[in-house]
């Protein structure tokens, strides 16, 4: 059952983000495109979860993007990414539930750390391996 709490009237007229859209003009400024930010978040921690990808169903904009994540425990979440941080907005892919009042996390690491013990273990092990490699490098 696909269900989103999105009123189509709230979407900007150029929700298709055509190539010739006005968003191109923002490249030199501080305005962040949250879709790019979301892709970077996914690339950062994909190795430590079962599945993670930017939603293609929910609307992305300058100020918001949605990321689907499945933890190694097989729990599914839809995350909202805004300037305020990341938070869980649903317990399934491509959905939002406005009744959920979950806290914002400043980083994806903090959010996943709170949701997934397996993430914590995999991420911790990767960190240890990296430190060991650096240690060996500095000794040679």
Automatic annotation (TrEMBL):
Q: Which GO terms describe its molecular function?
A: kinase regulator activity; protein kinase A binding
Indicate the segments forming the GSKIP domain, all copies: 34-134
Q: Which GO terms describe its cellular component?
A: cytoplasm
Identify the InterPro entries for this entry. Answer: GSKIP (IPR037395), GSKIP_dom (IPR007967), GSKIP_dom_sf (IPR023231)
Can you supply a Gene Ontology BP term from the record? regulation of canonical Wnt signaling pathway
Q: Give the family this protein belongs to, as stated in its UniProt record.
A: Belongs to the GSKIP family.
This protein is called what? Answer: GSKIP protein
Q: Which organism is it from?
A: Melanocharis versteri (Fan-tailed berrypecker)
* Upper classification of the organism: Eukaryota, Metazoa, Chordata, Craniata, Vertebrata
Name of the gene? Gskip
């Amino acid at each position: 059952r696909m269900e989103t709490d999105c009123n189509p009237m709230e979407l900007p007229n150029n929700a298709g983000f055509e190539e010739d859209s006005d968003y191109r003009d923002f490249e030199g400024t501080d305005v962040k495109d949250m879709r790019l930010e979301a892709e970077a978040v996914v690339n950062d921690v994909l190795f430590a979860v079962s599945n993670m990808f930017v939603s293609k169903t929910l609307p992305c904009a300058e100020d918001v993007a949605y990321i689907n994540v499945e933890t190694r425990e097989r729990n599914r979440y839809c995350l909202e990414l805004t300037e305020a941080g990341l938070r869980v907005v649903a317990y399934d892919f491509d959905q939002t539930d406005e009744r959920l009042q979950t806290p914002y996390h400043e980083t994806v690491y903090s959010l996943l750390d709170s949701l997934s013990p397996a993430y914590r273990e995999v991420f911790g092990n990767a960190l240890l391996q990296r430190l060991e490699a650096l240690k060996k490098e500095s000794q040679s």
